[in-house]
Amino acid sequence: MSDRAFVQRLRTSGGPSHDLLVLLNDHRILTTDQLARATAAPVRTVRHRLDRLRAAGLVDAVRPGREAGSAPRHWWLRVAGARLVAGTAAAPGRQHPSGLHVAHAAAIGETWLAVRDHGPAAGLRLRQWWSDRAGWQQWQSTRPGHGTRQRRLTPDAMLLVDVAHADVAGEAAAFVEVDLATMTQAVLRQKVDRYLAYTEARAWEGRWPHCPPLLLLTTTQARAATFLAAADKQLAAASRGNLVHGGQAGRDIADARTLVIAACGLVRDPAAAVVDQPVWQLSGATVTHVSLPRLLAGRIAAQARAQHHLDQADDDTARHDRVERLREVHDAVEQVARLLGAAAGDMLTHWYPADLPALADDDPQLVDALLHWWADPDDPDRAGPARQMLTDRHTTTWHRQAEQLLAAAHHDHPRLRAAAATLATGRLLRGYDVDQLHQPPQATWTQIQQTALEDYRAHRDDQVAAVWARTSWRARRHTSPTQLGDDHDREHLLVCDTCAITYPRPDPTGPDWHAGEHCPHCHTGTPLPYRQRDQVPTLTERLATIRTRLAPPH
Hints:
Layout: H1 3-13, H2 16-27, E1 30-31, H3 32-39, H4 43-55, E2 59-62, E3 74-77, H5 79-86, H6 99-118, E4 124-131, E5 137-143, E6 147-153, E7 157-165, E8 168-178, H7 185-200, E9 214-217, H8 221-239, H9 247-256, E10 261-264, H10 270-274, E11 280-282, E12 289-290, H11 292-331, H12 333-340, H13 342-350, H14 356-362, H15 364-374, H16 380-407, H17 414-424, H18 431-437, H19 445-470, H20 481-492, E13 493-496, E14 502-504, E15 527-529, H21 539-550
């Protein structure tokens, strides 16, 4: 088959040779052995396919020098191969890579294969791997006085895995940096600065399941330790002055948003870095060595704890906003009564402002309907459900309160009479008044009435006696002490229109004058002149009205 026919077949039919091109496009440079493992094909077969691709001008290879033995071929895409796979030319540096670049790219590819092939046994299943530019991150940073600028993070690779370790299961991401002892510590510190800027900007939110840790694979454990010692100083400087507020929640959120850096000296044996062994050194941690599964599981758990607190805070904020809107409706009870009816307004008045948070939690359906109507009070389609719900709850609440009052009616007391007066008109009792129904009174209505007039009677008798003594014998023919007493009562007594307690009129010059605006015994009734006492309904009459309202319609 000619080269042209071969290339045409790759374009139209794909196949194993095309899969090799795709792998090289994704990973830049791979060795013959890596390509064989990646495709699960024999090395001899893969070598033959690569030679065919090379003859067609789609790939090229080099054997980098090594101190002992012969190096394997390292393959990459040529311009024609890149255009066939991606539709564009190869990225700069791919067409004629240097020896150092070849080794570095192959090390990244070996790390990918290690995670893919050895990760499942350790509880890591590779979902996605981005090498080189595919894993680069861009974000915008804003600094006071400097405006907004585009920033870029350039990891060697980015991985996304499913983690199942201990009792943690979830999705984890991580940045991968490969160092073949070619980067100076100054360069590594600059990289950490960029990762810190990325983390501080929280550019990872919405992209990755958590703040990705930085994983550095280098040549020796000593080099890894040196790098981490420098990174610890940078992390400490970055966190200096960042006070953590909010107790445990604040600490959990800060932990999840902190850049975690780990390093190991296994760049030449990345499979050993993937297994469930504590070969990774951690920055700024009490546990200095962990396995990769434990490290990633820890970040999943940290994010889960933080997310729990953040969700709770969002819920608390939403609940607070909801209660505040409900409070607006509650404060506009007159408008509610005018637009939705007296029963709806009375139901709303029944709740104290302090009851509104519990109402929002306990009766969300009613609150939803009420707030939906409040957003457009003139919409009849919104008013209907709100009116119906409030009216239904008013009816249910009134029936319950009426039954409670009838059960306590044998304890005649001014507060009970006041409650009966309220319920007889179809209105609701407030919570305090309902509580009073369940408490036996310290004194009966009769006892309170006697106490209210005890001092008054003696004073009245003295006043009547004094007036009678001053009355001439001729005037006495037209009056009597009894009539004088009745006249005195009409002038000096009041009767409550609610509890029917009769009591002396307060002294206009005394400190308790304004207290006379309400009955001092039931605290709700309005005083009437004593001559109108026969107009006040009796407790028996009001209880009868309540029983009539309770009776089901025929």
